[in-house]
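This entry is listed as follows:

___
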Amino acid sequence: MRIDLINDKSIWESFVKSCDEYTLFHSWSWGEFNLLTGNKIWRLGIYEGDELVGAALVLGIKAKRGSFLFVPHGPINRSWETGTRNKEYIEKLKQLLAFLKNLAEKEKYNFIRISPLAARNKEKEEIFRNLGLRKAPIHMHAESTLLLDITKPDEELLAQMRKTTRYLIRQAKKEGVRIETEDPLTGKNFLRLQSDVANRKHFVAFSKKQIEGEVESLGKGGELVIFNASYDGEIVASALIISYGYRAFYYQAASASKFKNIPSPYLLVWRAIQEAKKRGCTTFDFYGASPDNQPNHPWAGPTLFKKGFGGYRVDYLPAQDFIVSWKYWFTWVVETARRIKRGF
């Protein structure tokens, strides 16, 4: 087995989309977005002879809380796993980890963080633990999500929704809510509404730089679409929807408190689902769900909203850390404090 850089977009995209499961966080555009924000990136191909059998997008992140290499929702592969204790899967992870450790030492990163796109179970936890990794103190991407099969006819999708959700979609139409896609893409409406939500809910919103970077990098290839809902001549809700391969992601959304009694977000999501179907997506990913047994979780409200559209829950293995330097423990303290403060 060997590991080499992949610098050809067509090779990368073709392989990623040939795998059974992948997300936008391993897309070529996600790498470009990270370059735009100042992170280093490495697109690694894992080969058996001349055959490409795996890929890992690696981000070099240097932040105030610490510097680390990050593999978002990866590594991905075509056929490493036929069982939870597959030796081939473990061996490739071991060799990739050794490669990343050398890279981290050379580039002066303190640890390696992997957010694997792997089902959460004891066998997977044991595999990563035996390789010397430990659970990260915070999540990097949503580790639980709700997925909706959108291959069914619209009538069937509506029928499987919660009765209240169907009613509120119809009500939004009656109230005169209009859903339009933003052209040209600017994200300014989303940023304004996000600021409103952040002030209302007392959380740190995504920065203007990040949103504009995502709009530029993912919007360039048509992967990101911004849906805006307007009522009484004013935009009252906005959502960033990303379509990549077979999945459409309800990536970020915000709505105005001024019109909280107008069910515009319900119609907005329904239009986004319909558009995802037109684009050939088979799954709508609501991207993020609170634990079922934590009704006071910060995400409990949005999760209840998402559940109304139907679908099923998927839980991924939490982010895993491999320590390279003792400086990791500074990051661990900072991130643990942040997690407790935010109520996670």
Notes: The chain is about 40% helix and 25% strand. The mean pLDDT is 90.
